[in-house]
């Protein structure tokens, strides 16, 4: 990591970039947060470890409006979101200096807690320079050992690959973490009856407290003014007839990001209620792949998405492939 | 302040029989904003319109709802009526109580309940309507006709005779189309070439008609009155200005193995060729897949024999860009491929042929000089079996669901011609039904049966088997006698279904004209606007719209021409004000709308935006009102809801839904 900090300081010093968009140590030791570092001194608080799951690409919307270039650190999966934002003219490629950083899989503190570990004070072994085999969890009750893999975010088990799709330079090594099929969960859902499906989503979405964290973190939800906040639409003030109506927020959001979602998994990561929101997006991605052929949003910054393009071979209504 | 008037039409008994119109009026009066409601027998009549105008004037209505037939029928009528009475024409909404209600319900209670709901939805919408004003655009006084068959030629001649410039784009080297391949035409048996070639000559000689033969439409942009079209003139390798049409090149060409398209592949042609002797223009083309010079730089004989020095091996495709006010599609048909019908042994025996191939065999200029003979051994056939509906009226998805319409008549024609010329030949026709609606058509068919003794058998053929002795056995069924039949035949003729030319899909896409599941272009209204496509400025001529015979094609071609003339005669067109509009404060500049716009109506500007005091330059979408057709694709794609369709705003549609769900 020192290599990374040295390089960032170098780029700040020679004037290539005006600031760094990275992660700053949080107050709990396992909750780093996105941060703009405006000077080399500030970088003392910089961190990049297994808990740096946050996708920084969306923060470059603001970064694109600032004076001069911003150095942004992107993990392989984050580069897909960045490409997608370029495609939608929401970030300016010229305003970004991208260091593609390696990734050894990102951690989910909830997974550690789920193993019955309480009173966590610190987690050791999440450093990017380490071998990332085992974590040592310090708790008020003593030390516990957890396999790194068992604490990884769901999205890292079905990782799209450790190749950066856009960057100016690459630093630090990656480790392949993929050991699952990302559409298995969709197949499971598809095998349910409509009633079972409805009950499943009703139950999951009933946990929602409408904190809007999923929307605020989502790189595809990059509207200047979200339809759910806008007075122009009656949805902002509408009272619910049925409590499930509130859940329409998630369904509408899934439609809005369909064909643009890169499956970065940030929605599920940040949900304080642990709702598996990525399931909606995966279902859409799988359907799009089946209807229009394999498409990975953000693989490049040019290709038109299948839902905003027309070809003569497009599937006709009612047709199945 | 809203003051809405509701006018419920009985449409005679069309609506009133299954909708309690008085109840609809009573219910409408209870809706917020409604200050006037009445019913009348025929709202579209002069007296009905006068009632509407009177109410608008006397009660100072701010918007009206007419509960009547489909808006496609009378929306314009009521808009004009409102405008005359001093109300903006876009403050009119139609509740469709006929097509969408009374016609589909039998029970008056159900019908009335739905009518009330539809009326409520229209009232909810009209209360959010805003006055809209139509703009104007100019008209380029030139028409494009795509396809140079009889449909295209007739349309072009009629438009040109009215004094407007017309360009015909024909993909093959000559105009003439399928009609040029036919021998005789039903029901009068006049020679097809004799009636077609003078029209071809007229078209070529007409000072207002310009023919782009061996050319294809490459790209279309623009809108009614102002289309811009790229035409690809394929390399002919012959200079059209120099060629005298002497034909020396065709005689000397040593590469003579290519199958003649004109003779349905029954004869060969040279690499440099005109499709047929009366071709227009009478300038040959070189087929680059056959020419020895173009393939391996050998030969060059045609260049040496050409006195005019017209051969040019270096010629390349040329793109011509022209402007048009109107476009007519006249792309015609092809006979279907018979791969799905192997039971008829078309691929196994040379003596099983399609009717179009028989036309060439019967034609004096055809491969057999008009002698009826078997293609396998050149012998005269004694027994001929015709099989009808091969691929037509298929319920099983193997062929086409529709009736190809022309086969019953041309088969009767073939049977008569054969029996007339070769009385010793037995002719049997297997049919499902014989359909003869048309002037003198049934008389013609009866002549085949009664005068010429053609043996018509009602029933289908299961299979045709080629026998070792060269004959064919036709296994069929006679439904009237209820028995299975085995007929020995020397020749079997298949009345293969016709389908729209394959390129029509591509052309329809370029023109944003919709096509149905069978690739026929959809007309704007099946009864009232049969020669117009739903896309303004695009008209339909001939089989691209549906199966037709020659008389029908010619009438439709004339009708399409009249529509074009009516359009070109105008100096200005009113544009539809129901176009999309971007809310600059909500626009992300993400290009989603740009990507889905089929009309290229959206562009982007970097604009200084004042967002509640925050001034910044943003990339925002701008809609070109002249190009926008109001399809609404952008409004549903826009993630932030910045795009809205004037006259059909998101708010209005949600208000309608809310009113329906109340």
What do you see in this structure?
The complex is a heterodimer of chains A (321) and B (662). Chain A has 321 residues and is α/β, with parallel strands linked by helices. Chain A has helices at 2-13, 60-63, 76-87, 109-114, 154-157, 184-190, 194-205, 213-217, 248-257, 266-270, 278-292; strands at 19-24, 33-37, 70-74, 96-101, 120-124, 134-139, 142-147, 169-171. Chain A folds into 2 domains: 1-107 and 158-180, no CATH class; 181-321, no CATH class. Helix content of chain A is 29%, strand content 13%. In chain A, the strands form 2 sheets. Chain A has a 5-stranded mixed beta sheet. Chain A has a 3-stranded antiparallel beta sheet with strand order 5-6-7, with no helix packed on it. The radius of gyration of chain A is 20 Å and the shape is globular. Chain B has 5 domains: 4-126, 3-Layer(aba) Sandwich (Rossmann fold), CATH 3.40.50; 142-234 and 317-332 and 501-568, FAD/NAD(P)-binding domain (3-Layer(bba) Sandwich); 248-305, no CATH class; 336-499, FAD/NAD(P)-binding domain (3-Layer(bba) Sandwich), CATH 3.50.50; 580-646, Alpha-Beta Plaits (2-Layer Sandwich). The two termini of chain B are 23 Å apart. The mean pLDDT of chain B is 95. The A-B interface holds A 65, 87-90, 222-227, 230, 232-234, 256-257, 304-305, 308-310, 312 and B 505-506, 509, 583, 585-592, 595-596, 598, 611, 616, 619, 637, 639-641, 650-651, 654.
């Amino acid at each position: 990591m020192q290599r990374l900090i040295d390089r960032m300081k170098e780029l700040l010093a020679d004037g290539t970039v005006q600031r760094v968009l990275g992660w700053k140590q949080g107050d709990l030791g396992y909750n780093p947060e996105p941060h703009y570092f405006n000077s080399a001194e500030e970088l003392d608080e910089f961190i990049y470890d297994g808990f740096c799951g946050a996708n920084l690409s969306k923060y470059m919307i603001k970064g694109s409006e600032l004076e001069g270039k911003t150095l942004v650190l992107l993990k392989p999966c984050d580069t897909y979101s960045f490409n997608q934002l370029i495609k939608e003219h929401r970030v300016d490629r010229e305003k970004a200096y991208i260091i593609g950083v390696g990734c050894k899989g990102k951690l989910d503190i909830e997974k550690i807690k789920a193993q019955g570990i309480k009173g966590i004070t610190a987690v050791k072994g999440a450093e990017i320079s380490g071998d990332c085999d085992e974590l040592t969890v310090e708790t008020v009750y003593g030390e516990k050992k957890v396999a790194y893999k068992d604490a990884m975010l769901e999205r890292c088990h079905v990782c799209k690959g450790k190749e950066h799709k856009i960057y100016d330079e690459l630093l630090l090594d990656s480790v392949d973490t993929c050991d699952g099929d990302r559409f298995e969960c969709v197949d499971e859902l598809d095998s349910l009856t409509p009633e079972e499906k409805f009950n499943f989503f009703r139950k999951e979405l009933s946990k929602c407290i409408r904190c809007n964290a999923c929307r605020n973190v989502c790189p595809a939800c990059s509207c200047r003014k979200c339809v759910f906040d806008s007075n122009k639409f009656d949805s902002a003030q509408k009272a619910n007839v049925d409590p499930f109506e509130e859940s329409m927020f998630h369904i509408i959001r899934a439609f809005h990001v369909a064909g643009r979602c890169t499956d970065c998994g940030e929605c599920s990561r940040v949900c304080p209620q642990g709702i598996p929101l990525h399931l909606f997006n995966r279902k859409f991605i799988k359907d799009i792949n089946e209807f229009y052929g394999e498409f990975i949003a953000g693989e490049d910054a040019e290709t038109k998405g299948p839902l905003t393009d027309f070809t003569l071979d497009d599937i006709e209504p009612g047709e199945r492939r | 302040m809203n003051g809405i008037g509701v006018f419920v039409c009985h449409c005679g008994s069309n609506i009133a029989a299954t909708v309690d119109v008085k109840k609809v009026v009573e219910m409408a009066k209870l809706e917020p904003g409604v200050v006037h409601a009445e019913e009348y027998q025929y709202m579209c009549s002069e007296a009905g319109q006068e009632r509407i105008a009177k109410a608008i004037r006397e009660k100072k209505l701010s918007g009206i709802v007419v509960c009547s037939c489909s808006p496609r029928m009378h929306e314009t009528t009521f808009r004009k009526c409102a405008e005359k009475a001093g109300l903006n024409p876009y403050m009119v909404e139609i509740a469709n109580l006929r097509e969408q209600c009374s016609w589909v319900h039998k029970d008056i209670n159900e019908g009335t309940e739905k009518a009330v709901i539809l009326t409520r939805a229209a009232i909810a919408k009209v209360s959010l309507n805003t006055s809209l004003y139509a703009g104007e655009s100019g008209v380029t006084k030139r028409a494009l006709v795509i396809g140079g068959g009889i449909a295209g030629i007739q349309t072009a001649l009629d438009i040109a005779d009215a004094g407007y410039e017309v360009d015909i784009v024909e993909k093959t080297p000559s105009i003439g189309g399928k009609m040029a391949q036919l021998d005789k035409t039903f029901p009068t048996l006049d020679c097809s070439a004799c009636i077609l070639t003078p029209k071809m000559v007229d078209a070529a000689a007409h000072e207002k008609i310009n023919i782009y033969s061996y050319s294809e439409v490459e790209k279309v942009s623009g809108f009614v009155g102002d289309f811009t079209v790229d035409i690809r003139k394929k390399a002919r390798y012959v200079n059209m200005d120099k060629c005298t049409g002497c034909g020396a090149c065709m005689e000397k060409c040593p590469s003579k193995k290519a199958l003649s398209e004109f003779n349905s592949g029954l004869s060969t042609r040279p690499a440099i060729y005109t499709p047929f002797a009366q071709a227009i223009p009478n300038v040959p083309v070189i087929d680059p897949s056959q020419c020895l010079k173009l393939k391996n730089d050998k030969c060059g004989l045609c260049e040496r024999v050409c006195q005019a020095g017209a051969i040019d091996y270096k010629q390349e495709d040329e793109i011509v860009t022209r402007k048009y006010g109107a476009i007519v599609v006249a792309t015609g048909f092809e006979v279907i491929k018979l791969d799905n019908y192997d039971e008829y042994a078309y691929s196994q025996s040379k003596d099983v042929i399609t009717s179009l191939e028989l036309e060439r065999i019967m034609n004096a200029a055809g491969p057999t000089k008009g002698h009826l003979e078997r293609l396998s051994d050149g012998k005269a056939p004694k027994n001929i079996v015709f099989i009808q509906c091969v691929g037509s009226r298929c319920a099983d998805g193997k062929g086409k669901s529709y009736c190809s319409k022309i086969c019953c008549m041309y088969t009767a024609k073939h049977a008569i011609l054969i029996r007339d010329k070769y009385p010793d030949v037995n002719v049997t026709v297997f049919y499902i039904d014989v359909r003869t609606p048309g002037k003198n058509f049934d008389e013609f068919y009866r002549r085949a049966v009664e005068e010429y003794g053609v043996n018509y058998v009602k029933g289908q053929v299961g299979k045709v088997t080629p026998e070792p002795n060269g004959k064919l056995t036709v296994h069929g069924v006679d439904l009237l006698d209820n028995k299975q039949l085995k007929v020995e035949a020397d020749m079997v003729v298949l009345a293969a279904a016709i389908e729209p030319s394959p390129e029509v899909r591509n052309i329809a896409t370029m023109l944003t004209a919709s096509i149905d599941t069978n690739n026929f272009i959809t007309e704007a209204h099946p009864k009232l606007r049969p020669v117009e496509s739903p896309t303004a400025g695009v008209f339909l001529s001939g089989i691209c719209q549906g199966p037709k015979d020659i008389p029908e094609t010619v009438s439709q071609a004339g009708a399409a021409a009249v529509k074009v003339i009516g359009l070109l005669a105008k100096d200005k067109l009113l544009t539809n004000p129901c176009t999309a509009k971007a809310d600059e404060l909500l626009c992300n500049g993400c290009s989603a709308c740009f990507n889905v716009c089929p009309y290229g109506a959206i562009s982007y500007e970097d604009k200084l935006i004042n967002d509640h005091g925050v001034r910044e330059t943003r990339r925002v979408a701008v809609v070109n009102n002249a190009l926008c057709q109001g399809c609404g694709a952008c409004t549903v794609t826009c993630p932030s809801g910045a795009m809205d369709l004037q006259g059909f705003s998101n708010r209005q549609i949600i208000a309608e839904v809310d009113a329906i769900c109340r």
